[in-house]
């Protein structure tokens, strides 16, 4: 019994027999188009229900996203006019997938909801589309609302578990695992869903469960090993990830670029240099961008800025991730001016900054006290680049202003935010107010934090300390008493010792 979001079980979908066809729905053509139609072609290109999925796939694979989306839309219109859509499930599923790959998710969802009787493959396609566009929670909710209408096969279960992994939904993944064990042949199920299960269990620290699933999988398949290594690395279990990598090599399984990306997430400087040397022997120069981006991230994490910059200079085809990692490296290590220089260099190279670039450079300005530069960049990204600021980016600006002692400007900025400020925003103001011993603004931030996250005892402790530092003993006692009144527990401090 598979329970996803409180749905009880699956039942086999009703099988409907198609009505007899007295005449073909489409005129058969001996020749098929060699290239996807453009918006101007619409119905001029001959096709039938059997060729439409292939044509849609070809259109979605166009080099230009804009032209690909227009071609898919034209094919959609032609298919509706000729009756192929939504009556043909294979064509409809291909249409959903094509819209997803061209970035037009709303159209993909509309195409799915127009299906009178979605098949298992239809659900697999739409859930994959939602997950690909960063909406795994919505994918799980969609499936839960329609669960009794479809019996999952191995592919749909694999897609569900991947959505659970992305959404960190552990219990629904366990339910999907149990259903798959009972209803799908073990070899087929684990070959399809095994990597996602291994990664999910490892990420949640379930080492023994991840190992049990792994034992059912092909030990010679590098994908299985990548899932184990990547799962442990994402759970910050560096020792387990590194041991798994060593075991893979001892068994003679040849790793690929994704193996190196996975293990680099668990490396310290010494082991990272070993992987770096192996990468140079196996992959040559910086042609595999994703691989060298991961290497830069490793060097950034351990504070080796010069090594990260050397790797960056050797990447043959830098993408936006390459620039973001390098800017983030400077930001985290206190090189604010260098980070700003690279933002300008990025634009000069014709690379369009994204929201990650926006956040990273604002963090660099916060860490280095570059207040005016940070405000100017915020204005540029919003007004010129047209990026919509996120809560995290707004919190960066509040932190930037408040840390510089410009608390009134920070409060004015909060009042003008396009969304309701959350605990991160008010917490930034409270922390900066404590730094500058500003009781007035600290009180404003604290009153908001009590409403936003009343269960966080740390805010009460911080406010009490601010009052005590200002000599306001009675106010400090009053806030401390509030902790006892609502039965909050102050987070206990922890320390660690390394025995050498």
Automatic annotation (TrEMBL):
<keyword id="KW-0809">Transit peptide</keyword>
<dbReference type="Pfam" id="PF01535">
    <property type="entry name" value="PPR"/>
</dbReference>
<feature type="compositionally biased region" description="Polar residues">
    <location>
        <begin position="1"/>
        <end position="12"/>
    </location>
</feature>
<keyword id="KW-0677">Repeat</keyword>
<dbReference type="InterPro" id="IPR046960">
    <property type="entry name" value="PPR_At4g14850-like_plant"/>
</dbReference>
<feature type="repeat" description="PPR">
    <location>
        <begin position="319"/>
        <end position="353"/>
    </location>
</feature>
<dbReference type="InterPro" id="IPR011990">
    <property type="entry name" value="TPR-like_helical_dom_sf"/>
</dbReference>
<feature type="region of interest" description="Disordered">
    <location>
        <begin position="1"/>
        <end position="43"/>
    </location>
</feature>
<dbReference type="Pfam" id="PF13041">
    <property type="entry name" value="PPR_2"/>
</dbReference>
<dbReference type="Pfam" id="PF20431">
    <property type="entry name" value="E_motif"/>
</dbReference>
<feature type="repeat" description="PPR">
    <location>
        <begin position="288"/>
        <end position="318"/>
    </location>
</feature>
<protein>
    <recommendedName>
        <fullName>Pentatricopeptide repeat-containing protein</fullName>
    </recommendedName>
</protein>
<dbReference type="InterPro" id="IPR046848">
    <property type="entry name" value="E_motif"/>
</dbReference>
<feature type="repeat" description="PPR">
    <location>
        <begin position="221"/>
        <end position="255"/>
    </location>
</feature>
<dbReference type="InterPro" id="IPR002885">
    <property type="entry name" value="PPR_rpt"/>
</dbReference>
<feature type="repeat" description="PPR">
    <location>
        <begin position="354"/>
        <end position="389"/>
    </location>
</feature>
